[in-house]
Amino acid sequence: MPSLIVKVYSLLFKYNLNRRLQSLIQSPISYPFNGVVSRADESIITSNPSFSTDGVATKDLHIDSLTCLSLRIYLPQSALISLRNLESGEGGYGGYVPGKNGKNCKKLPVILQFHGGAWVTGGIDTVSNDVFCRKLAKSCDAIVIAVGYRLAPESRFPAAFEDGVAAIKWLGKQANLAECSRSSLDKRIVNGEKHRGRQIVDGFGASMVEPWLAAHLDPSRCVLLGVSCGANIANYVARYAVEAGKLLDPIKVVAQILMYPFFIGNIPTHSEMKLANSYLYDKATCILAWKLFLPETDFNLDHLAANPLKPGNEKPLDLKHMPPTLTVVAQYDWMRDRAIAYSEELRRVNVDAPLLDYKDAVHDFATLIVLQKTPKAQACLEDISIWVKKYISLRGNEFSY
């Protein structure tokens, strides 16, 4: 059984979440022009482009002028071949700036991460998400890019899913721009030119090449990771990547990780009936969240965003080309049955889709800040790292699980 601390915290958490959802349902919504929504009652951590605190540098970006889609990049210190000159204070930036010659730069895989929060809360800068992403970057030895997708009810479906697709498209664009920039530099060197050369810019005159990614990103090793409702987004982006194929080049999605996905449906499963009042997120509260996220005119819990294995006469999803998928579930999570069923369906079509089922664990047990230091949370992060390194390690250094 979960500890007494978890039980007490769960009561407070459910009370506050339910109150917040009821407030959002009852309050009139003023739709912001730029799509930005902030929840003032959530504790946040500002970005820090220095490696000095815990060996991970962070940087915030806005990549869409219309929706203000935001990203936070987590760069582990392992990206540096040499530990000299970690920071260059160029231009008063006061943070890590890659060397111009690239000799001190190591290429790393990238993990595109989608936070949880029942569609209406959470963000890239919340304490829980920031601490988890820092640990993930160091444990997996990878660049982590957290996606600050639009929240409901200000932005309903498909806004969050569109933001996930926009993020991976942007990543592909960055990889292509970096390659163009390197090719241009190589050409100038061959021709013996000594001038700096032109810089690729956008229509506003701002540099489009993100220097951390240009120096350290390996686009051929991309992993998607989603937490709770973020797992629904990750799975959608994985399907998009399969359908897009070479249109996403040079980005290659090699694996995805679904941590206690936020699946639901009209016909209740055994766990949904037995654990309806379970810890942190009970079913009744989560249905309120789905009502705030799904289209108002056609509310249906068998919507493809909610139920990837929805029954009926519609053509079933073709899952055989999905990337290897690791699914994490918890014993005391009412959503577990649908996540297990989805994992089984992937294995049925010969996708590498292992399932990690943690005993005496609750929804969000590995990512909620108050639980991240527990043995189960630490074991989960280690298990994820071991598995994913099968697909992100360079040839000759593969891991086995």
List keywords for this structure.
alpha/beta, 401 residues, globular
The SSE string, one letter per element, is HEEEHEHHEHEHHEHEH
> What topology, given as strand order, has the largest sheet?
1-2-4-3-5-6-7-8
What form results from the Cα inertia axes?
globular
- Share of residues in helices: 25-40%
Strand content: 15-25%
Please count the helical segments. Answer: 9
Weakly predicted, low-confidence segments = 87-92, 194-206, 396-401
The number of distinct β-strands equals 8
> What is the mean predicted local confidence, pLDDT?
86
Radius of gyration: 21 Å
Largest sheet: 8 strands, mixed
Secondary structure class reads alpha/beta
Distance between the amino and carboxyl termini: 28 Å
Domain Alpha/beta hydrolase fold-3: 111-366
Pfam family, one: Abhydrolase_3
Family: Belongs to the 'GDXG' lipolytic enzyme family.
Protein name: Probable carboxylesterase 11
Can you describe this structure?
With 401 residues, the chain is α/β, with parallel strands linked by helices. Helix content is 34%, strand content 15%. It contains nine helices and eight strands. An eight-stranded mixed beta sheet has the order 1-2-4-3-5-6-7-8, with helices on both faces. The two termini are 28 Å apart.
